[in-house]
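Need residues for this backbone.
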């Protein structure tokens, strides 16, 4: 434990990805095109989006199972067509295709909450059709990431992991994640170093205070997901780290 007040020594020009959590939600409603564009404009290297399927199989951006919290409509997304979703949100809920077009060339971290194999195949198909495969990567738990790996053997995966114990060798071999994606409170410098030694990049979510951002960068994480992109970009610069080349 540090007992002095000397400044933390950061590696020179280390890359730390700034990821806008559902866009820039403290300023603009989450998972909307305006929110995604705001995050990119404020320096995000990537935007994290949540994707679910409508009843007619169209991937749209929504974190919750229903529209109650954001759009005051209790109906679940799986009960509505894409046209009905457009109508109830007055166009505010974009399709995945629209989101990919609006964010190019920024990276897109696609979260697939509770997605089954059919949903995964549809999402991966849209990403491929939009020519976004090289800038898209996927996050969720192991079961969903296994479905992503089956749908696209070359997909970039950030497998969400909640334990300080590492995933089993057999799971790592099956999913082949590039990243392990942790809630920030689980991480420590020792864990990050061990994960790096095993060949993983480390992603942390969702850090919204500058103090937490500084701690994560000092630990050596490679990516931070935040609701406050501008604050993270400021902290990253002060730490001597950089984002992805533009």
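Answer:
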């Amino acid at each position: 434990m540090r007992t002095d007040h000397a400044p933390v020594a950061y590696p020179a020009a280390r890359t730390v990805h700034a990821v806008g959590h559902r866009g820039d939600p403290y300023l603009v409603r989450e998972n909307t095109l305006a929110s995604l564009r705001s995050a990119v404009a404020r320096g995000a290297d990537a935007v994290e989006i949540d994707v679910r399927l409508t009843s007619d199989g169209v991937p749209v951006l929504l974190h919750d199972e229903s529209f109650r919290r954001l759009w005051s409509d209790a109906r679940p997304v799986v009960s509505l067509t894409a046209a009905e979703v457009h109508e109830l949100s007055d166009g505010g809920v974009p399709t995945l295709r629209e989101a990919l077009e609006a964010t190019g060339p920024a990276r897109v971290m696609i979260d697939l909450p509770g997605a089954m194999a059919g949903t995964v195949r549809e999402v991966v198909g849209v990403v491929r059709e939009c020519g976004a495969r090289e800038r898209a990567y996927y996050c969720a738990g192991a079961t969903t990431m296994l479905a992503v790996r089956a749908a696209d053997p070359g997909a970039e995966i950030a497998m969400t992991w909640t334990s300080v114990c590492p995933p089993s060798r057999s799971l790592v071999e099956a999913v082949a994640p590039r990243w392990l994606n942790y809630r920030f409170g689980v991480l420590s410098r020792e864990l990050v170093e061990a994960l790096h030694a095993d060949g993983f990049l480390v992603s942390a979510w969702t850090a919204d205070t500058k103090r937490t951002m500084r701690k994560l960068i000092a630990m050596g994480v490679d990516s931070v997901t935040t609701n406050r992109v501008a604050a993270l970009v400021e902290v990253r610069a002060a730490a001597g780290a950089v984002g992805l080349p533009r």
